[in-house]
Fold this protein.
Amino acid sequence: MVTLVTGATGFVGSHLVDAFLRAGHRVRCLVRSPTRLGWLEGKDIELAVGDCTRPETLAPAVVDAEIVVHAAAVTWAARRSDYFRVNASGTYHLLTACGEHARALRRFVFISSQAAAGPAADPDRGVTERDPPRPLSAYGESKLLAERHVASLRDRIPSVILRPSAVYGPRDGNFLPYVRMAKRGFLLEFGRVPRTVSLCQVEDLARTVVNAAQSSAAAGAVYFLADQRPYAWSEVERAVCAALGIDARHLIVPKWCLRTAAALGQVYGSVAKRPVRLNAARAAELLEKNWVCDVGKAMSELGYAPQTALPQGMQQLVRWYQQQHWL
């Protein structure tokens, strides 16, 4: 079975490649440069050189694909328009190419994000697939628009939309600054309001993507993916400290301080035309109290069963950082 994976050189995409190879698929990866393969080096894969923002390059990649897994996305961009150009328009271009050239296509799997739905509005439960989306950032808005492109073509292109919560695991660079600060003895907290989050370990995610690609139950559906229960942020902190074998002090960052830094970061990004990791939208996400999603639908329809508990997952992540000499 020929499976095309976009975004395959990235953190999540490279784990998807590994999972489909283990499942016995013939894996093809859409890459922008055959000389910059990152985590794909040395793997038994086919390469298709192209870019989702350049529709003329996509036909050779999809032509005989039976499964297309679209994980390519921009998570940090200098301009709002860049999120929509890559995440939304890029998804539309890939869908169009599949509709025109992928005659054997059995499933289009779109890797979206909980950011497309936003945090839970009800403090007593996680956000569900039935709740109206309320993204807080341009990234979330662009992923939601991409979801709508997928849904608009589901009569022609058999598809499934997966919304993982915050994903962590080996090869993840986003969690690294937090772990580095913890290693120095500090745990950052924004404001004094307790936060609750859903987390998704990357190998649990990858296994579920393979299942969703092959499950008839998933056709046309949307699913949240995360651990079976949410975590108080204090649990995450304890898991990080235990993995590092240290005790750390809490450093409380007042909300006004975070918002001021975010505003300065946004100005700098606009002037320098460079992506910044802290802007107004990111500050709003960090201050949100309830980034929790409900995975009941995925458990009942996909047989979703996360296997990596948070302490084990953090031990694995920290060990990998150490092996890579990132800490």
The domain at 2-172+199-228+292-308 is CATH 3.40.50.720 (Rossmann fold). The longest strand covers residues 26-31. The mean pLDDT is 92. Residues 160 and 219 are 6 Å apart (CA to CA).
